[in-house]
From TrEMBL:
Pfam families: A_deaminase (PF00962). It comes from Georgenia deserti. Binds 1 zinc ion per subunit. This is Adenine deaminase. The keyword ATP-binding does not apply.
Length: 318
């Protein structure tokens, strides 16, 4: 079975080494690796930060609106081939403006590719701008202000990067401003951080979904809350394996959480780095956790119910 939606996907995490080298040549940049194979050989991560360091370094090659358009279009083609019919993709806008690329250039490239998705690839797609947790709350607020004033079609606001430093409280103003402008809200939490981080983004940022959230399974009261409030978790088992959140895929809590009634959805996170787009993630997860048709149907249904789409589109996806 194929998943009809992908709700947790970082566009920068779809940058395949071949494209990194092509863009470096186009933009006349030197890379510290000899070729795509040498870069790919570095994809052996010990934790989230070791991944973020390489992910941040590779993004340097993304310089123009056309680069962002090409990156987005390549992901959409691959997602369509994986059977995805609706994608909500995240973009670390601050990572690009912070190194001198204009927000309008980035947003223009990404949103033009997303808008062309139904005609070109047969899937609908929306954009989530993610603010970075390792940067100050004031920077997140300035980014949200810039995004809402820009007029580009943005579906939601997210929060990502390391969970081990700032508190969710630091981002309240940014999330309040986004909510006031009608943006949907999500945040990474409970990936490498404790269950309290999940509670933090629910209580302080009032998010509608939680990205990852797998560490919530260590807190039965929190699991009960997620079930009662039907809060979707966008879970990424292969990412969790590759970033050593779990030691083995068969030990991943996804199946236990599903069986407890948590609204779990299945996603790829950063597929170029973790060796698997959503079709591959689905197959590997189903095999490792011995998921049957019923579990897979529930995951697919949850993905559609958790998507930020109009009800008419939701009915089509179902
Ligand atoms: N940015 C890209 N991938 C991420 C992840 N798995 N966790 C936090 N921030 C990220
Ligand atoms: Zn993520």
């Amino acid at each position: 079975m194929r998943m009809p939606t992908e709700l947790h996907l970082h566009l920068e995490g779809t940058l395949e080494p071949e494209m990194t080298f092509r863009l470096a040549e186009q933009n006349r940049l030197d890379l510290p690796w000899r070729d795509p194979d040498e870069l790919r050989a570095r994809f052996d991560f010990t934790d989230l930060q070791s991944f973020l360091d390489l992910y941040t370094m590779s993004q340097e090659v993304l310089r123009t609106g056309e680069d962002f358009h090409a990156l987005t279009d390549a992901y959409l083609a691959r997602a369509a081939a994986a059977g995805v019919r609706h994608a909500e993709v995240s973009l670390d806008l601050q990572a690009h403006t912070g190194r001198g690329v204009r927000a309008a250039e980035v947003l223009d490239g990404v949103t033009s590719a997303l808008q062309a998705a139904p005609g070109r690839h047969g899937l609908s797609a929306g954009l989530i701008v993610t603010v970075l947790r390792h940067l100050p709350g004031e920077a997140a607020l300035a980014t949200v202000r810039e995004v809402v004033e820009s007029g580009y079609p943005v579906l939601g606001l997210g929060l990502c990067s390391t969970e081990l430093t700032a508190h969710a409280r630091d981002f309240v103003e940014a999330f309040d401003l986004a909510r006031a402008h009608g943006l949907h809200l999500t945040a990474h939490a409970g990936e490498e951080g404790p269950p309290q981080n999940v509670t933090g983004v629910l209580d302080h940022l009032r998010v509608e979904r939680v990205d990852h959230g797998v560490r919530a399974c260590g807190d039965p009261a929190l699991v009960a809350r997620l079930v009662a409030q039907r809060i979707p978790l966008t879970v990424c088992p292969v990412s969790n394996l590759r970033l050593r959140v779990v030691d083995a895929l068969h030990e991943h809590p996804l199946r236990r959480m599903l069986d407890s009634g948590v609204m779990v959805t299945l996603n790829s996170d950063d597929p170029a780095y973790f060796g698997g787009y959503l079709d591959e993630v689905t197959d590997r997860t189903a095999e490792a956790l011995d998921l049957g048709e019923e579990h897979l149907s529930t995951l697919a249904r949850n993905g559609i119910d958790a998507a930020w789409v109009e009800e008419s589109r939701r009915r089509e996806l179902h």
